[in-house]
Amino acid sequence: MSAQQQVTVWFDSGCPLCVREIALMRRLDKRGAIDFIDLHSTACCPVDRETLLARLHARDTDGSLLSGAAAFAAMWRAVPLLRPLGLAARWRQLLAALELAYGGFLRLRPGLQGLARRWAGE
């Protein structure tokens, strides 16, 4: 992007769920507003790699490092189609609800990863 700062998202290319989600976000990000960084192909990490692999992390346009639902919201705000949801997530109560949902997903993620790998024939 030219004058606008980008959102930076670190993702796990070893996770079949992450790969699918990032592929969708790349298709939606027609303006190139998000810089996607594969944690397995870079040494450039703002915090330790294990922390980044455990939850989604993003650097927002203001430079703040976000994780979990707040990182998703920053990514959504960068994509016009999802921007209203990202803006709504600035409402503290909605962000808290999204974080609870994300925490639930993280507990299910190992099983879902296994299903996705089997489905993809990996």
Count of distinct strands? 4
Described by the principal axes of the CA atoms, the overall outline is globular
What is the topology, as strand order, of the major beta sheet?
A: 2-1-3-4
Beta-strand percentage range: 5-15%
Helices and strands, in order, run as EHEHEEHHH
Secondary structure category: alpha+beta
**Overall structural domain count:** 1
The major sheet is characterized as:
4 strands, mixed
Give the number of helices: 5
- Uncertain segments of ≥5 residues (pLDDT<50)? none
Q: Overall mean pLDDT score?
A: 89
How helical, in percent, are the residues?
40-55%
Termini separation: 35 Å
Radius of gyration: 14 Å
Key terms:
122 residues, alpha+beta, four-stranded mixed beta sheet
